[in-house]
Amino acid sequence: MAKTFVFKFGGASIKDANSIINLSKILHNRLRNHTVIVVSAMGKTTNALEVIISKKMDMKEYSSNITILKNYHLDICQTIFPENHPIFPTLENQFLKLSNALDYSLSKENYDEFYDSIICFGELVASRIVHEYLCLKNIFCLWQDARDLIETNEDFRFAKVNWEKSKKNIKKQLLPKLEQFPVLTQGFISGAASGKTTTLGREGSDFTAAILAACLGAASVTIWKDVPGVLNADPKRFEKTVKFDELDYREAAELTYYGASVIHPKTIKPLANQNIPLFVKSFLDPDAAGTKIHGVKQPNTVPCIVVKDQQILVSFKVTDFTFISEAHLHQIYGELEKLKLRVNLLQTSAISISLVMDNQIFKLEKLTEKLKAVYEIKYNSGLQLLTIKNHNAALVKEILGEQPLLLEQITRATFQAVIQPSAQ
């Protein structure tokens, strides 16, 4: 059986008409039957849909936001398609479905489920447009709804993959198509057994590519980005960056855990388990080597810098003069597990526990409500979590400068600090 290749294109690679034309050129000489193309929502579409959901939650008018988003996609289509192309009624139909889905009631209780039912339209619309354009350019491929392939539980926004069911779905529905044509599908979105739409976590399209690759026993996965490969720091934040020609699975997984945005955190494990190499390449320079993530014996010693924005520092202080024990940790982590809140940093003292986590709407409110009878709870929001792997004193001093630290943690290999960013 021929080996499958998986290509994933993120939002930046299909953000406008020229980007979609560029994607078609990248695929022109690389496409073969056993290829899966995974696409994200176009540009900042997911952000735009989140604003619409937020306005709906706050009972504010959002129809103009839908119109702006529709016109954004329509302008792209009018540039790259002939006037009477079928993509235009398809686009109209998708935005009609979006408007209908937004008519359903929204509350704190059903927020996550509602979120997934709306946010999926970004990927659905993008995949239709890209699929039709490739076919227009005689790069024939089949469109596939990812929700029929990747089955999950109903942990909306952070759905857990049912690997056994997903593998059966992929082998039954996807594999026969790949024998005839390349297949284009969506990243990020998935489906529960009930038929409800779920998602795999923000920026989860990389994980989609890894799931498909693992279930198909693919030869490789290639993620196309607006950077030349995996860098030791975000080039938008730091001037001097180093590109890795190759990186070990474990090193890459650790960087994603700390918040490196180049790859979704869950992407590495399914690939590493089957020794499937992951290539990170630039859609701006597609012939460049990029970075190969695979089994590398030589450990990395280059300092790596990761900054996570919109962090919350929460402190739980015992009120009955007892000292912090394992029971307190177990109690707090039990509530975090129920709310699907992930801790990015933990620090304990004699009488308090401090946690750093992503800002998630309504989740902190529910957490404090559950634990306020036992602890005095305080929190700071709008923070940054800085992580320096393979740190040294000079580098730490250079990056931090005079910024005040709310929390600091140092191990042999890793420096972490919680910072209150200065007002811009």
UniProtKB/TrEMBL annotation:
<keyword id="KW-0547">Nucleotide-binding</keyword>
<dbReference type="Pfam" id="PF00696">
    <property type="entry name" value="AA_kinase"/>
</dbReference>
<comment type="pathway">
    <text>Amino-acid biosynthesis; L-methionine biosynthesis via de novo pathway; L-homoserine from L-aspartate: step 1/3.</text>
</comment>
<dbReference type="InterPro" id="IPR036393">
    <property type="entry name" value="AceGlu_kinase-like_sf"/>
</dbReference>
<dbReference type="GO" id="GO:0009088">
    <property type="term" value="P:threonine biosynthetic process"/>
</dbReference>
<keyword id="KW-0028">Amino-acid biosynthesis</keyword>
<dbReference type="GO" id="GO:0005524">
    <property type="term" value="F:ATP binding"/>
</dbReference>
<dbReference type="GO" id="GO:0009089">
    <property type="term" value="P:lysine biosynthetic process via diaminopimelate"/>
</dbReference>
<dbReference type="GO" id="GO:0004072">
    <property type="term" value="F:aspartate kinase activity"/>
</dbReference>
<dbReference type="GO" id="GO:0005829">
    <property type="term" value="C:cytosol"/>
</dbReference>
<keyword id="KW-0067">ATP-binding</keyword>
<dbReference type="InterPro" id="IPR042199">
    <property type="entry name" value="AsparK_Bifunc_asparK/hSer_DH"/>
</dbReference>
<keyword id="KW-0418">Kinase</keyword>
<protein>
    <recommendedName>
        <fullName>Aspartokinase</fullName>
        <ecNumber>2.7.2.4</ecNumber>
    </recommendedName>
</protein>
<dbReference type="InterPro" id="IPR001048">
    <property type="entry name" value="Asp/Glu/Uridylate_kinase"/>
</dbReference>
<dbReference type="InterPro" id="IPR001341">
    <property type="entry name" value="Asp_kinase"/>
</dbReference>
<keyword id="KW-0808">Transferase</keyword>
<comment type="pathway">
    <text>Amino-acid biosynthesis; L-threonine biosynthesis; L-threonine from L-aspartate: step 1/5.</text>
</comment>
<feature type="domain" description="Aspartate/glutamate/uridylate kinase">
    <location>
        <begin position="3"/>
        <end position="282"/>
    </location>
</feature>
<comment type="similarity">
    <text>Belongs to the aspartokinase family.</text>
</comment>
<dbReference type="GO" id="GO:0009090">
    <property type="term" value="P:homoserine biosynthetic process"/>
</dbReference>
